[in-house]
């Protein structure tokens, strides 16, 4: 039985999250594999430098060879010697709507992934386990598409201005009111790009003299926004409330580093669902801490809006909390709504301030009208205001798919990270050759998966990430599971030792070596 | 066919070796280099083991007989 965390009765439902430890043999063999590839990388670099082999990657010009070298750091070494060998698993061109099934253009490489040529054939009906299509709104037919087409013929595609100049359409106002109603907040503002929402709005909210407490595994947009703001950044361990509380205590007690003045603002940056781990933030505890130490909370619901909660309103509804407790609720329209863009919701004063002072509002072009209409239609569908129960049915289908898929994968013996209820399912691969092999074998069996390797994950913890969708039927999931089982046996991916690791209640500090207490 | 499944099994084992050492990802000439290095190392190890074993086997067996012999001698004397 998984350990149920009951921290003072804050959780109304069991919180089952597990990150099984890497088996020692697997870790050793992974390092062996990386060691062999590194040696061969050095050999190939040597041959390229002495012109024994043709150099196909970017290098400096002849005149610049005496300058400080540009391509000698580890990132570039990794890029030309390891990434190039398995590059065919990424940037695959698709040529249809990324729904539950997708069409892909076939490409081959005759020089080991340095260049690709298209054979002209289109591989049809690949089961799509990689798109962020949680509620299945990526469709080219249906109510959303018709509404978007109508708006396209009425407004055109471009806006040709920023929100503050001439780009504030009535559609944007309608969208913002709708999003505010959907989230249960006073007011909301929508932006054209999800990444830009984070990176351009955090600098508007905090500045020098403020403290940002950011989770270890936060997304690049949050990290970029935090760095651009100029505030002091402190990192707490992933989803670890004891670490967060320690940092908060230190911040309140000691104040700013040199002058000991109190911090102007303390902002806690967390995400609803972390996309590489599949873990859900411990929101009740974060809110309790925030209230105790009087700091602000910025919640990035990029993956959790639409995907969690009985009516799809995100992680706040999933835990049964009050949306007014979260100071800044940010999310994106890219994942569950089948469109593009991001939003920020909160109190009216906050949003009015952001309308004037956010870089994105002042400089970025506003959202394109058909995209806005897609979001409006999909939000109305999820809320049930279009008169059908499609939205509700989709949210429930996603929850069922998630539970079924995760249960079956765990039974098969794979190591799966993350929370039981998160639709993002990372399956651990560990060894570099298996990253490429998994991607290729799954494509041969007509299933498209996203595999993730070094810069996005720690170097030995590479994984394959499945994103479930409400558009996946049980037959599709069964087919996918059958193929994953086959490929798992072929590549020996079933590492799980099936030892149920209980979650620790006490702090996980330097004196704790193992997660289990024997 | 038992031979067929045995061959498949050996081929599958070789595939696992390829995956673990990442020779699955190497170009053919790199594979040749890597496998010849591996075969060379294994061959050298086996030869060294054979040579050492041949040199040390004699004295080792003598020591073993001596221990057993003294044990037998003790046991015989105890029985007596």
Automatic annotation (TrEMBL), chain A:
The gene coding this protein: Sptlc2_0
NADP found in the keyword field: no
Residue ranges occupied by any Aminotransferase class I/classII large domain in the UniProt entry: 124-484
Domain of life: Eukaryota
CC terms in the record's Gene Ontology section: endoplasmic reticulum membrane; serine palmitoyltransferase complex
Key words, A-Z: Acyltransferase, Endoplasmic reticulum, Lipid metabolism, Membrane, Pyridoxal phosphate, Sphingolipid metabolism, Transferase, Transmembrane, Transmembrane helix
Membrane topology, record value: Single-pass membrane protein
Any Pfam family hit: Aminotran_1_2
Compartments reported by the entry: Endoplasmic reticulum membrane
Gene Ontology biological-process annotations: ceramide biosynthetic process; sphingosine biosynthetic process
Recorded metabolic or biological pathway in which this protein acts: Sphingolipid metabolism; Lipid metabolism; sphingolipid metabolism
Required co-factors: pyridoxal 5'-phosphate
SUPFAM superfamilies: PLP-dependent transferases
One annotated GO molecular function: serine C-palmitoyltransferase activity
Annotated EC: 2.3.1.50
PROSITE patterns recorded: AA_TRANSFER_CLASS_2
InterPro entries reported for this sequence: Aminotrans_II_pyridoxalP_BS, Aminotransferase_I/II_large, AON_synthase_class-II, PyrdxlP-dep_Trfase, PyrdxlP-dep_Trfase_major, PyrdxlP-dep_Trfase_small
Chain ranges passing through the membrane: 24-43
Keyword Transferase: yes
Family: Belongs to the class-II pyridoxal-phosphate-dependent aminotransferase family.
Name of the molecule in the record: serine C-palmitoyltransferase
TrEMBL record, chain B:
Location in or out of the cell: Endoplasmic reticulum membrane
Molecular function via GO: serine C-palmitoyltransferase activity
One record GO biological process: endoplasmic reticulum organization
Key words of the record: Endoplasmic reticulum, Lipid metabolism, Membrane, Sphingolipid metabolism, Transferase, Transmembrane, Transmembrane helix
Entry superkingdom: Eukaryota
Membrane topology: Multi-pass membrane protein
Pathway noted in the entry: Sphingolipid metabolism; Lipid metabolism; sphingolipid metabolism
Key word Zinc-finger present: no
InterPro entries: Ser_palmitoyltrfase_ssu-like
GO CC terms, sorted: endoplasmic reticulum membrane; serine palmitoyltransferase complex
Residue spans crossing the bilayer: 32-53
Complexes and interactors: Component of the serine palmitoyltransferase (SPT) complex, which is composed of SPTLC1, SPTLC2 or SPTLC3 and SPTSSA or SPTSSB. The heterodimer consisting of SPTLC1 and SPTLC2/SPTLC3 forms the catalytic core of the enzyme, while SPTSSA or SPTSSB subunits determine substrate specificity. SPT also interacts with ORMDL proteins, especially ORMDL3, which negatively regulate SPT activity in the presence of ceramides.
Function: Component of the serine palmitoyltransferase multisubunit enzyme (SPT) that catalyzes the initial and rate-limiting step in sphingolipid biosynthesis by condensing L-serine and activated acyl-CoA (most commonly palmitoyl-CoA) to form long-chain bases. The SPT complex is composed of SPTLC1, SPTLC2 or SPTLC3 and SPTSSA or SPTSSB. Within this complex, the heterodimer consisting of SPTLC1 and SPTLC2/SPTLC3 forms the catalytic core. Within the SPT complex, SPTSSB stimulates the catalytic activity and plays a role in substrate specificity.
Family label: Belongs to the SPTSS family. SPTSSB subfamily.
Protein name: Serine palmitoyltransferase small subunit B
The species this protein was found in: Sclerurus mexicanus (tawny-throated leaftosser)
């Amino acid at each position: 039985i998984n350990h149920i965390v009951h921290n003072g009765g804050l959780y109304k439902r069991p919180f089952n999250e597990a990150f099984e430890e890497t088996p020692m043999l697997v870790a050793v063999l992974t390092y062996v594999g990386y060691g062999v590839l590194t040696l061969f990388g050095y050999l190939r670099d040597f041959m390229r430098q002495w012109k024994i082999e043709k150099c196909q990657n970017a290098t400096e010009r002849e005149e610049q060879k005496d300058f400080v070298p540009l391509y000698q750091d580890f990132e570039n070494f990794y890029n030309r010697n390891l990434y190039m060998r398995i590059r065919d698993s990424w940037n695959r061109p698709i040529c249809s709507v990324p729904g539950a099934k997708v069409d892909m253009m076939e490409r081959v490489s005759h020089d080991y992934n340095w260049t690709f040529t298209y054979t002209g054939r289109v591989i049809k009906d690949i089961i799509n386990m990689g798109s962020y299509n949680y509620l299945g709104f990526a469709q080219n037919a249906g109510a959303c598409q018709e509404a978007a087409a109508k708006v396209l013929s009425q407004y055109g595609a471009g806006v040709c201005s920023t929100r503050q100049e001439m780009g504030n359409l009535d559609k944007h106002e309608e969208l913002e009111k709708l999003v505010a109603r959907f989230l249960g907040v006073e007011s909301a503002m929508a932006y054209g790009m999800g990444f830009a929402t984070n990176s351009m709005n955090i600098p508007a909210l905090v500045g020098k003299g403020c403290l940002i407490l950011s989770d270890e595994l936060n997304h690049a947009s949050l990290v970029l926004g935090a760095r651009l703001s100029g505030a002091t950044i402190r990192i707490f361990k992933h989803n670890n409330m004891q670490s967060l509380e320690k940092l908060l205590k230190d911040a309140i007690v000691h104040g700013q580093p040199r002058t000991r003045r109190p911090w102007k603002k303390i902002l806690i940056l967390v995400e609803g669902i972390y996309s590489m781990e599949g873990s859900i933030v411990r929101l009740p505890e974060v809110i309790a801490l925030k209230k105790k130490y009087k700091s602000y909370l910025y919640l990035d619901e990029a993956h959790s809006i639409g995907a969690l909660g009985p009516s799809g309103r995100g992680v706040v509804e999933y835990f049964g909390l009050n949306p007014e407790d979260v100071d800044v609720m940010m999310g994106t329209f890219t994942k569950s709504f089948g469109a593009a863009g991001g939003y920020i919701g909160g109190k009216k004063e906050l949003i009015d301030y952001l309308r004037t002072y956010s870089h994105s509002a002042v400089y970025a072009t506003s959202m394109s009208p058909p995209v806005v209409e897609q979001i409006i239609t999909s939000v109305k569908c999820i809320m049930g205001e279009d008169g059908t129960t499609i939205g509700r049915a989709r949210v429930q289908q996603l929850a069922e798919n998630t539970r079924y898929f995760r249960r079956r994968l765990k039974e098969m013996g794979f190591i799966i990270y993350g929370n039981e209820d998160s639709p993002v399912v990372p399956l651990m691969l560990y060894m570099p050759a298996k990253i490429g092999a998994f991607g290729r074998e799954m494509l041969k069996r007509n299933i498209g998966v996203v595999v993730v390797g070094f810069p996005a994950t720690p170097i030995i913890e590479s994984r394959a990430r499945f994103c479930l969708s409400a558009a996946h039927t049980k037959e599709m999931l069964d087919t996918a599971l059958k193929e994953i089982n086959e490929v798992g046996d072929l590549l020996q991916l079933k590492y799980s030792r099936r030892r149920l690791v209980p979650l620790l209640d006490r702090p996980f500090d330097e004196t704790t070596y193992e997660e289990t207490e024997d | 066919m038992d031979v067929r499944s045995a061959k498949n099994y050996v081929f599958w084992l070789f595939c696992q070796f390829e995956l673990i050492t990442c020779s699955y990802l190497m170009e053919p000439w790199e594979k040749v280099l890597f496998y010849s290095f591996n075969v060379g190392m294994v061959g050298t190890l086996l030869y060294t083991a054979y040579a050492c074993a041949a040199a040390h086997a004699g004295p080792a067996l003598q020591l073993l007989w001596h221990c057993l012999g003294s044990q037998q001698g003790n046991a015989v004397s105890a029985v007596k």
